[in-house]
C-alpha cells in the first residue's frame, strides 16, 4: 500500500477526483483484473512470448480471445507470430473443446 500512497500523494486534485470516480465505477477493479490476467497468460508488450526477445517499435501484434476478454500478444518477428498461432492458439482450442 505504501507504493500506492506515495503515488496518490503526488497527484493533483483533478487527478484524484478522476481516480475516485473510476474507483467508485469499478474501473480500477477492472484495470487490476486485466493486468493480473495478462500476467497469468504470460503476455507482455515488452517481450516476445515465443523467444523472449525484446519488443521493438516494429513488432507484430496479434489480438485474439472472446469479445469480453481480448488479449494482445506482441511478437518481435513474423516467424514468432506464426509459431504462436500454430502452437499455442491450437492448444488453447483443444483445451476448450
Ligand atoms: Zn520472438
Explain this structure to me?
By secondary structure, the protein is mostly helical. The chain has two domains: 1-41, no CATH class; 43-97, no CATH class. The protein has helices at 2-10, 13-25, 27-41, 78-96; strands spanning 60-64, 71-75. It has a two-stranded antiparallel ribbon. It binds zinc ion. Residues 48, 50-51, 53, 75-77, 80 line the site of zinc ion (ZN).
List keywords for this structure.
about 60% helix, about 10% strand, 2 strands, binds zinc ion
Bound molecules: zinc ion
The computed structural class is: mainly alpha
Strand order across the largest sheet: 1-2
What is the mean predicted local confidence, pLDDT?
85
Number of strands: 2
Ranges where pLDDT stays below 50 over 5 or more residues in a row are none
How is the secondary structure organized here?
Elements: H1 2-10, H2 13-25, H3 27-41, E1 60-64, E2 71-75, H4 78-96
Antiparallel strand pairs: 1-2
Bound molecules: zinc ion.
Question: How would you summarize this macromolecular structure in one to three sentences?
Answer:
The protein has 97 residues and is mainly alpha-helical.
Amino acid at each position: 500500500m505504501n507504493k500506492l500512497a506515495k503515488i496518490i500523494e503526488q497527484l493533483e486534485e483533478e487527478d484524484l477526483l478522476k481516480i475516485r470516480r473510476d474507483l467508485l465505477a469499478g474501473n480500477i477493479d477492472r484495470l487490476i483484473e486485466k493486468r493480473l490476467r495478462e500476467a497469468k497468460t504470460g503476455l507482455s508488450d515488452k517481450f516476445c512470448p515465443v523467444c523472449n526477445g525484446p519488443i521493438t517499435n516494429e513488432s507484430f501484434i496479434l489480438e485474439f480471445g472472446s469479445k469480453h476478454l481480448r488479449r494482445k500478444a506482441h511478437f518481435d518477428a513474423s516467424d514468432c507470430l506464426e509459431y504462436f498461432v500454430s502452437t499455442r492458439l491450437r492448444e488453447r482450442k483443444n483445451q476448450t473443446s
